[in-house]
Amino acid sequence: MHAEEPTGSSESGEDGSDGGEPEPKRRRLNRLGSSVVRSATVLARTLVACEEKRQLRHREVLELEERRLRLEEERTEVQRQGFAGLVSAINSLSSAIHALVSDHRSGDSASRQNQCNDEWDNLLRDYNRLRDYESRATATAPATAAPARGATNIRCLPSYWAMERHERKDRNLPTNLAPEVFDAR
Description:
There is one protein chain. This protein has about 180 residues and is an all-alpha fold. It has two domains: about 30-105; about 115-140 and about 155-185. Helix content is about 70%, strand content about 0%. The chain has four helices and no strands. The protein has helices at about 20-105, 110-140, 165-170, 180-185. The longest helix is centred in the middle third of the chain and has 83 residues, at about 20-105.
């Protein structure tokens, strides 16, 4: 074995002419240095790639969030327009019904307006009477098939829609109210 120099002359710039060991050491150190540089380069590239992927994911998340917000705003606008359209349609329908009833009546416009108001009042009165009657009829309907022992004096009221015209008249109910008008509440 050769004795090594205590000063570490292999790094001091010897050209390797003194002995055989400093040259292999230098090669080993060069290879080690090259390996460290390659590893550092790979590590740096990996870190750059990871950072680029992180930034790309961040941009994608921001784009997705912006898209979600746009969709939510569009959905809200569609709902708002839908409600506005529904209100507009109801108002138009109400105006059309009022115009139809007004046009149905003959005479001058003042008389026609009065007749129209009378017709609406009559229709409302008939509706309220029928509503009250139907609520009483459903309230007195028997809960079971057999009446209780002391409840024989309770009379079940027939439904307005099951009665004949003369039965409606006998009970002081409107005789010709259409089911469509009653159900339009």
